[in-house]
Amino acid sequence: MVEFFGEKLAGFAFTQNGWVQSYGSRCVKPPIIFGDVAWENPMTVKETAYAQSKTKLPVKGMLTGPITIMNWSFVRDDISREQIAYQLAYALRQEVEALESAGIGMIQVDEPAVREGLPLKEQDQKGYLEWAVKAFRLTTCTVQNSTQIHTHMCYCEFHDMIDSIIDMDADVISIETSRSHGELIQSFEENTYPLGIGLGVYDIHSPRVPDVEEMTRMIDRALRVLDPKLFWINPDCGLKTRGIGETVASLRNMVEATRLAREKYALQV
């Protein structure tokens, strides 16, 4: 998620053997931000535009957000992390604009690591969240109203930062809920979110294929609180760690659970 973009942005360097454990047996090589970050050429436009040319359905552009890139990199210490986040935001904004110019009307700016960067000292947390939200909005603020902005967060406690999530002003936010068994939904009972919400209905970090019934239970639990017209059904996270067999089987079950939900709640797409 980070190395791909870092290789295409100015200001990044990479090691050959600087592996860091992510989780379990999964390891990553965090890039080194040594200089000013800048966009040089389109990074994802060619592939995304090609995919869009093969279907009449919308294809989503996918970018890693500025805070996640920063938090998953070794950063320079001669300027503040806030300044680095803004440099990343300005660079990524040019990619967002390039995707939009190529006809991509749905763009996701992933921010799974926003919570990871939250300072341990409570008095520092408000300031961090303020500039983290600002960096996200700098990334997306120039698109047309017709372009739908998505973001995604996973496997964190979000209850005490719901207001900041709302302030990010994404048209759709997708959040992990399968491991917490929908506990996060309680936050939306207390804080109305006026835009689209996608709650993950199965755990992609497990090889187990979830059945339709358990995903249906998660959907029904969410729709006791959320507006069905604004609800998105999706996996918890990306599928790159899963094999093709389990991926296809899980997605087929998810599609069937979605079909049943549309029938139950009389929704049309």
Automatic annotation (TrEMBL):
**Alphabetized Pfam families for the sequence:** Meth_synt_2
**What top-level branch of life does the organism fall under?**
Eukaryota
**InterPro entries per record:** Met_Synth_C/arc, UROD/MetE-like_sf
Q: Where is the Cobalamin-independent methionine synthase MetE C-terminal/archaeal domain?
A: 1-259
Which cofactors does it use? Zn(2+)
Query: What SUPFAM superfamilies is this protein classified in?
Result: UROD/MetE-like
The protein's GO terms of the molecular function aspect are: 5-methyltetrahydropteroyltriglutamate-homocysteine S-methyltransferase activity; zinc ion binding
* Keywords on record: Metal-binding, Zinc
GO-annotated biological processes: methionine biosynthetic process
Is Transferase one of the keywords UniProt gives this record? no
Name this polypeptide is given? Predicted protein
Q: What is the organism of origin for this protein?
A: Physcomitrium patens (Spreading-leaved earth moss)
